[in-house]
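Marked as duplicate of an earlier ticket. Keeping the data here for the record.
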Amino acid sequence: MNYHFIAIGGAVMHNLALELQHNQHVITGSDDEIFEPAKSRLAAVGLLPQAHGWFPDKITPALDGVIVGMHAKQDNPELQRALELGIPTYSFPEFIYHHSRNKTRLVMAGSHGKTTCTGMLMHILKAYRDFDYLVGSQLPGFERMVRLSDAPLIVIEGDEYLTSPLDHRPKFVHYKAHAAMITGIAWDHVNVFPTEEIYHNQFSLLIETLEAGGQLFWFKGDSALQNIVEKSGFPKQESYDAPTYENVAGGTQVTVDGAVYQLPFYGRHNLQNAAGVVKMAATIGITAAEAWSALETFPGTAKRLEPILETESLTVIRDFAHAPSKVQASVSAVREQFPNHKFIAVFEVHTYSSLNPEFMQRYQGTLDPADHVCILFDPHVFELKRMEVPSRETIEQRFGKGQALSTKFELEGWLHDAMKTKEPTVVLLMSSGNLCGLSVDYFTDSNRS
């Protein structure tokens, strides 16, 4: 088959292109800008477009399909040409369903934790089943973020964000899951979902699209989610929560049905997610004991409470947390795991939601467990998104704790002062950006002197 990708540089889009080429399909693509690692990965296999931009002459009747990414706009000239010629046009969620319509589909959803949950389930299945997958991050032990084969089942990270320029429904409604898990709901993407009610409605749509006879698992500690599930009337649904656990060096010890398992990750939110994943695995015949045993070797996911430096006196952890609920969960997890350490937390205000002065109020108290707090913001990011740059005082007031800084130089100076201590220290770096270019190389013994 011959497929053309509009906006081939996207995280999932370029992985899907690589996988389809690996499966002997003919692939072409376009984009107006492509960043690393997509740029190098596409170039390595001859798929990097020779020029930036959109070229309608690439769209010909010889194409079997066009796959369009969310980065493209509705008036994209290549998209318009494909529609004029009547070429089958797919968003990537539609294409994934098209490929998997005869498979058992397991979908992981929720405002937070879905990448980690998808990774956990993939790690469990790797020991017991052949499966396809779609996940939103590169995982250890998996060559790409997408696998499409003749396997009988597929694991999908289900995103609530918009499907494509032509389809403003959430991506996860296209998958028509046989089993779905919802980790929790916390209002996010305020530029797309302007009210909490509208955001919650996306998850109602997910439940409505589950296959007849399907199963739904949901976190029992989320009252908003409980309300949505109860209103849905979905018959085969079950809640879950974290098992009995104890923090130990390097992770957590959990007890389930009298058996003890040593897990290499920590944080109550990770443990409750693991409990839900175990229930998802059971839908395809994997026992709880088999699933928990497999999780004893789970390597984690990139930028999800990921240790990037560990010495006798200093631990540095990188995390993708950006929404208030994610920040609170990550900060609480680190505080619980390192109760006797000096705790330094850095949070970068970077997403559209976090940049919104009114939404910013929702971060109030989320950083309180840390001893020292820095709120990093780049005025240029506000300007790019045509948003007014708030004062440092406004940011500090919204968060309720911490010092607002706006440059790498200021951040490095602040960290130098905060790390002046003889006691064991843990540093948590939370960002969906790049922390103004701060490098892990900064965290050396020389900077603590």
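See parent ticket for discussion. The domain at 2-87 is CATH 3.40.50.720 (Rossmann fold).
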